[in-house]
Amino acid sequence: MTKEEIYTAIAEDYENDRASAESKAHLLKKRLYEENPRLAEIDSEIMQNGVELFKISASGAYNTEQRENFRVKIDALNKEKDNVLKNAGYSLEALEPRYKCDICKDNGFVGSKRCQCFRMRLADKLYDLSNIGPLLEDENFNTFDYSRFSKEKNKDGISPYENIMNIVMDVMGAVDDIDEKPMHILFYGNSGLGKTFMCNCIAKSLMERGYFVVYMSAYKLFSYMLRFRFGRETDKEAEAVRLLNECDLLVIDDLGTEGVNAGTIPELFDIINTRLLNNKSILISTNLSLADISKTYSERIFSRITGNFNIYKFIGSDLRLK
Ligand SMILES: [Zn+2]
Question: If you measure from the C-alpha of residue 208 to the centroid of ligand 1, how many angstroms do you get, rounded to a whole number?
Fold first, then answer.
């Protein structure tokens, strides 16, 4: 899916939601009016009284008593309508379409401006495409539990706490600057230090700003790529591979767990190199050390990463064991 296709899909969603809300309201009204013929009579009486009231006002004749009479009649009719509906188990509002957004009535626009609900819709759509699991809702920079990192300095003179704070500051800056500068980030370090959580935070904050993020474990990524090469992919996998190139940010989680073989190395090089050449963002997390990356993958991959990526080491003891 390209960005245009995503926008088109959202416009279609709006149209469907609007049509569905209106047709539901219409069908309910039709049924209630069939079951309660008095409702149609009331409507036409309200209409007649309204016309009379308008005539008096428009003629300029200032007959307060007459006008008041019509108003009282109209009020009474509205009350009666309300009662008929209540007896049928509904309220007056039930006759109105129930839009998902009351502000734009599921148009997506208020005047020529996009409604505030558009951003949520876009984020939802991007989220659906991104592959990110349901955990994400509570995972953001604010819910990251920094207190779990020790403030004790290690032999390099930095504590895990200072280290994670530095990473977060840098990464938040990179998120803010992504329009000017694509993000090329490698997170490495032992497992259980919050790398995946941090990847989720970045993915989420970009999606909330309307960027198109695709999140893949290395295992899934390479199994898709290899099947794709051999033309054995399902439609869903082919779409996923297409998204890899289209997205604004590609997150590859858990690099090194994919069962590296002669097939995966050129694939990884191709993905990294293509995104670098196209100025597209990429975020990789791995439990491998830098030395392991250089040993496991090709020299070409290692030099692409060290030459172009901001590299962050996660330090501390496993957060999950505490
Ligand atoms: Zn709206």
Answer: 16
Report d(CA 34, CA 173) in Å as an integer.
62
Query: How far is it, in rounded angstroms, from Cα 250 to Cα 238?
Result: 16
CB 1 within 8 Å of CB 9: yes
What mean pLDDT value characterizes the chain?
87
CA–centroid distance, residue 97 to ligand 1 (Å): 14
What are the residue ranges of CATH 3.40.50.300 in the chain? 131-321
Reported for 230-234, long-range contacts at CB under 8 A and 24+ positions apart, including other chains, are: none
Confidence band, pLDDT 50/70/90 cuts, at residue 136: low
Q: Tell me the CA–centroid distance for residue 11 and ligand 1, in Å.
A: 12
Residues 130/215, Cβ–Cβ less than 8 Å = yes
- State which amino acid sits at residue 257: T
**pLDDT exceeds cutoff 90 at 108:** yes
pLDDT at 302 over 90: yes
Pick the CATH number of 131-321 from 3.60.150.10, 3.40.50.1820, 3.40.50.300, 1.10.1670.10: 3.40.50.300
pLDDT 10s digits, 58-70: 877 667 788 888 8
Say how many Å lie between the CA of residue 111 and the centre of ligand 1: 11
pLDDT tens per residue, range 154-168: 888 899 999 999 999
Q: How far is the CA of 136 from the centre of ligand 1 (A)?
A: 24
Q: pLDDT tens digits, residue range 170-201?
A: 999 999 999 999 999 999 999 889 898 899 89
**Ligand 1 centroid to residue 103 C-alpha, Å:** 5
Helix (H, G, I), strand (E, B) or coil at 252: strand
Encoded amino acid at 286, one letter: T
| Span from the CA of 100 to the centroid of ligand 1 (angstroms) | 8
